[in-house]
Design goal:
alpha/beta; Aspartate Aminotransferase, domain 2; 2 domains; 7-stranded mixed β-sheet; 4-stranded antiparallel β-sheet; globular
């Protein structure tokens, strides 16, 4: 199998699994317990929080552990909406966000909130001026993803942040896809909230984190015993949080090497396919995108069918298939990609274990399918 679907999920790194093992069997104490076993669990939990904070360049008191990206996104939108409902009920986001943002926004609309969904250009990029034009006196939150999960296009968060600060509006970014693939220092991005999903950075599924800037006060998302700074009650999952912490430490250790290596492999894959099939279309920004992400459309073909006939290649499509009907992805649709081109989309995303040989083999398989010729 050739796995090129790292934007969907990543394997658990060996170092992460090793860090978690003692808390599966030996150090099983409750972090809230006063005895030594509880103390060891608490120490491990806070070490993990520190590892996350160092990766983000923030204070450990600004990191709240969650069950993943979806919960973190829900927590921001709902808690901010609840906290500031007397100040305003207007939220700004984009048409290309993850469903955990879009569907939460739609839920809030049913509760009387007003949400503006901003357009993007043909590359999937948001013009910061669209934010400026959309801000109102009752705007309480701007939420824009850092990098798109389908195309990898990176948004101009620093410019958006300046507009948010100018108008006194809180700013959140869903960085589930960008963490571990590009720099995500919260000071550089200028955000008040940032979402992390563990399974995108070689930690287990079911764990994530939310950065909340010190000084920002929001309603608790889960009420109970007051864990996680009182915002997310419930006994902490030390095992998974330790895994996330170790994964964040690995990001710090590997990112400077991973970025150029993955970009080189991605471009090698693209160039091989493009040389053989010149009509292939790149979806997303040609330069300002994640170094590991390549979204290509094979015009006149259906991405789902291409992949189904190459079972040894694990990748994703840019179209959703339900009940034997094909539907253009909302991301490509927002970019103005036609249905004919969009249903031929395939997302190829590389990761730390990806090798040059795998890239070459994947290119050969896709070229053979796209041209009808065996190489």
């Amino acid at each position: 199998m050739i796995y090129l679907d790292y934007n969907a999920t990543t394997p658990v790194a060996k170092e992460v699994a090793e860090a978690m093992m003692p808390f599966l069997v030996e150090d099983f104490g409750n972090p809230s317990s006063a005895h030594p076993m509880g103390g060891r669990a608490r120490e491990a939990l806070e070490k993990a929080r520190g590892q996350v904070s160092r990766m983000l360049g923030c204070e450990s008191t600004e990191v709240v552990f969650t069950s993943g990206g979806t919960e973190s996104n829900n927590m921001v939108l709902k808690s901010v909406a609840w906290s500031l409902r007397n100040k305003g009920r207007h939220i700004i986001t984009t048409k290309i966000e993850h469903p955990s943002i879009i569907n939460t926004a739609l839920f809030l609309m049913e509760d009387g909130y007003d949400v503006t969904f901003l357009p993007v250009d043909k590359y999937g990029s948001l013009d910061p001026d669209e934010i400026r034009k959309a801000v109102r006196r009752d705007t309480i939150l701007i939420t824009v993803m850092h990098a798109n999960n389908e195309t990898g296009t990176i948004q101009p968060l620093a410019e958006i942040s300046s507009i948010a600060r100018e108008h006194g509006v809180l700013f959140h970014t869903d960085a589930a896809q960008s963490v571990g693939k590009t720099e995500t220092k919260v000071g550089d991005l200028g955000v008040d909230f940032l979402t992390i999903a563990g399974h995108k950075i070689y930690a287990p599924k079911g764990v994530g984190a939310l950065y909340i800037r010190n000084g920002v006060k929001i309603e608790p998302f889960i009420h109970g015993g007051g864990q996680e700074m009182g915002l997310r009650s419930g006994t902490e999952n030390v095992i998974l949080n330790v895994g996330l912490g170790k994964a964040c430490e690995l990001v710090l250790d590997n990112l400077s090497d991973d970025i150029p290596r993955l970009r080189g492999l991605r471009d090698r894959l693209h160039n091989q396919i493009l040389s053989a099939i010149p009509e292939v279309v790149l979806n997303g920004h040609p330069e300002n995108r994640l170094p590991n992400t390549l979204n290509l459309s094979f015009p006149g073909m259906i991405g789902e069918e291409i992949l189904s006939e190459i079972p040894e290649l694990c990748a994703s499509t840019g179209a959703a298939c339900h009940d034997r009907s094909l539907k253009l992805s909302h991301v490509l649709g927002a970019m103005g990609v036609t249905e004919e081109v969009g249903i031929g989309a395939i997302r190829l995303s590389l990761g730390r274990p990806t090798t040059e040989a795998q890239v070459d083999e994947a290119a050969g398989l896709l070229i053979a399918k796209g041209t009808g010729k065996d190489l």
